[in-house]
Amino acid sequence: MSAATATLALTDQSKATLRTAAYGAVSLLAAASDKPGEAATAGTTALLSATGEIGHVLNAKSKDIRLTGKTVAALADQVLPALTAAATLVDTQNPAEATNFRTTVLIAVEAAAATSRPGQPVVADMTRKIAAALRTGN
């Protein structure tokens, strides 16, 4: 089976890590946004539009997403390493799905960021931090 057609062999814990990372990225961007509710809705809608195996994981009805940070800093401490771990995990099994995961999260973050007023430096900075965490998974 080629890498392009390989499936992901994910444990329940691995699926939880992927969901926590993706939905955590949206939550982190929303927390930094001037319109958090709109940002969360736009980002979540983008995640729910994901396709491929990653789409199935992100769309599964689950209560395993654990985001416990009460501040942006505490949330970032949890989400940014989860993004790196999730990207690394998928990359080791299926590089095409790893690209799908990264692209899906970045589109969700972009959708969330688009709800903010133009020129919000905090949102732009958080977007860069999320993208960097995803890249370190390569």
Largest sheet: none
Number of domains: 1
Order of helices and strands: HHHHHH
Q: Distance N terminus to C terminus?
A: 22 Å
Q: Round the mean pLDDT to the nearest integer and report it.
A: 90
Overall form? globular
DSSP strand count: 0
Supply Rg: 14 Å
Question: Which regions have little confidence, pLDDT < 50, spanning 5+ residues?
Answer: 1-5
Annotation field: number of helices: 6
Strand content: under 5%
The helix content, as a percent range, equals: over 70%
Given the helix and strand composition, which structural class is it? mainly alpha
Give the arrangement of secondary structure elements.
Elements lengths: L11 H21 L3 H13 L3 H8 L12 H22 L1 H19 L7 H15 L3
Helix pairs in contact: 1-2, 1-4, 1-5, 1-6, 2-5, 3-5, 4-5, 4-6, 5-6
